[in-house]
Every structure is written in C-alpha cells, then in structure tokens.
UniProtKB/TrEMBL annotation:
GO biological process, one term: cellulose catabolic process
Active site: D148, D290
Assigned EC number: 3.2.1.-
Binding sites annotated in the UniProt record for substrate: W73, W193, N220, W259, K284
Protein name: Glucanase
GO MF annotation, one: hydrolase activity, hydrolyzing O-glycosyl compounds
Transmembrane intervals: none
Domain of life of the source: Bacteria
Signal peptide extent: 1-28
PANTHER family: 1,4-BETA-D-GLUCAN CELLOBIOHYDROLASE C-RELATED, PTHR34876
Length: 316
C-alpha cells in the first residue's frame, strides 16, 4: 500500500499567507495489508508428505506441520532477487503474509560449525542482501535477518565482529530503502545465550533502530514465557524502542540445555499475532535438522528428517 499524503490547502488572502499543516497518513502494516500468514505448499515437510503418501507418518506430518505457516529460509543464490520475488509473489497472489529468513552472512555459524557457508565476501553479501530486499519491493512481508549472527561472537576477532555489524546495519538500510512494507527483525539470540544488556548493545550497533525490531529463540527450544521475558529485558536496555517476535516452532516442552536435535522436544503454539510478542512465528522448520548431532547424527543441518518431525509431534 503506497503511503498517502493529504495535500495542505494554501490560501492567499491579500498579503497574508496561511498554511494548513496536516500529518501524513501512515502506511498500513503488513499484517493489516494481508489476510493471515502464508502457508508454503513447497516447505520441506509439505514436500516430503506429498512425495511419500504411502508412509504411515505422512498424513500426520502434513496435518501438524506441513499445513502451518513456516518461514522460508534463503541462502546463497546467484538470482536471489528473482527467487525472493517469486516466493513473495505467490504469497501476494493469495493475499497472505510471507515470512522469510535472510541467512547468508560470510562465515555464518562461525562457532557452531553445523551451518557454515554464506557469501564469499563482504561485497558479495552487500549485493546479495540488496537484491533480496529489491525482490520483495513494496509488497508486504516479514523478514528475519541472519539467525545467530549477534550471538555467535565467541570465536571471532574484533575485525570480523565489526565487519559483521557493518553488514547487518547495511542490511537494515537496504530493507528500509527497497522494501518499505516489510517488517524486519534482526536476530537477537535466545534466553540462554547472551546477557540482555550485551545483546542490546549488539543490536544497536547492527542497526536495529532502522528495523522493526528483533527476533528471539530462532532454532532453539526455550519456552515462550522465558523468551518473552528475555526479549523484554533486551528491549528495556534498548530504551523500549523495538518490537520483537518469538520462534515457537519447537518450544512446546522448553529447553533441556541442548541445542542440536535434542530428544523430548515438542511443537509449540502455531503462528499468531500477539501472544506476548508482536508475533509468535514458526521460523525454524520443524523436522529440519540442526546438524549431524543429537537424535539425528546422520542428517545434515537444514535437511528434513521425518523421524525428527514425528518426534516433535509425539513429544518423544
């Protein structure tokens, strides 16, 4: 929706100049511009269920996971603008709100090591993220920017940290410039990782004030209550200037202290507006592996595993 500005009326009675000042009408939010979240028919659980109709797990996986709105993750692609435009266009054609994840920082997952990769250089990332934002254009969307990027500092030197902060700030600027109807959330880690005041400093340095706010608990398992409490503490340190979203995709049982395919986890509440945050979202795809670890030692990070999905459904 284009920003609408009511033109002021100017009257010139004799030599007197009178101007009437009118406040511009703000553009509607992406939530108000759409009718619910977009359910991607090509998400990994939906695709697996469609391709394996004779598997006894398929119907439950489709019903409990594949039919839900799940964020789509985007990594290194030579045509990222076109790929993003195609996905957002499909959502737009159904009047739905897509949730996207930008995940392509050079040296991503630097300390965790399971989801390495990303753009080959700072310059390549700048081109990539600008193209990503341009692919959305003026259509409504939600974007989570670079999960783990601000928590994953322990194994980085000062130069690498500053480069990362500069890239994230550049990303916020490009979305503001090229995707005006998109709500952007820089990732802010989780309740068990970085102290709230430290995370607030990092978010501030990464340009959170150019964005809608920040996300918490992406790809992790902390309860919604603990995640909201953590996010509120971060926001207090930011001067209550930001909004936040929580990933509830796998937090139904909370965290047992393990982050990589732990047993005994459970699906969280489905995506919704509100719930203690601006939105509760399924950012991590339930059933996609965290890495070759835990109860999926042979499943690479990001790959769908129907056994992981069923265990989340059955709470085992």
């Amino acid at each position: 929706m284009k920003r609408m500005i009511r033109r002021a009326t100017i009257v010139f009675p004799l030599l007197t100049l009178l101007t009437v000042s009118v406040t511009p009408i703000a553009a509607a939010s992406p939530i108000d511009q759409t009718d619910g979240f977009y359910v991607d028919p090509d998400s990994s659980p939906a695709t697996w269920a469609r391709n394996n109709p004779d598997d006894s797990r398929a119907a439950r996986i489709q019903e409990e996971i594949g039919s839900r709105p799940i964020a789509r993750w985007f990594g290194n692609s030579s045509d990222i603008g076109g790929v993003v435009a195609d996905h957002v266009g499909k959502a737009h054609s159904h009047d739905k709100l897509p949730v996207l994840v930008a995940y392509n920082l050079p040296g991503r997952d630097a300390c965790g090591g399971h989801s390495g990769g990303g753009a080959g250089s700072v310059g390549a990332y700048r081109v990539w993220i600008a193209s990503f934002a341009a692919g959305i254009g003026d259509r409504p969307a939600v974007v989570i920017v670079e999960p783990d990027a601000l928590g994953d500092f322990a194994c980085m030197d000062d130069t690498a940290i500053q480069e990362r902060l500069d890239m994230l700030r550049y990303a916020t600027e490009k979305f503001a410039e090229k995707a005006p109807n998109t709500w952007v959330y820089l990732d802010g880690g989780n309740a068990g990782w970085v102290a709230p005041s430290t995370m607030a400093d990092r978010l501030d340095a990464a340009g959170v004030h150019n964005a809608r706010g920040f996300s918490v608990n992406v790809s992790n398992y902390y309860t919604t209550d603990s995640s909201v409490s953590y996010a509120n503490s971060v926001n207090a340190a930011l001067g209550h200037s930001a909004r936040f979203v929580v990933d509830t995709s796998r937090n139904g049982n909370g965290s047992n202290g393990e982050w990589c395919n732990p047993a005994g986890r459970k699906l969280g509440v489905p995506p919704q507006v509100g719930g203690g945050a601006e939105m509760l979202l399924w950012i991590k795809t339930p059933g996609n592996s965290d890495g070759e670890c835990g109860i999926a030692p042979n499943t690479p990070a990001g790959q769908f595993d129907p056994e992981l999905a069923i265990r989340l459904i059955e709470n085992t």
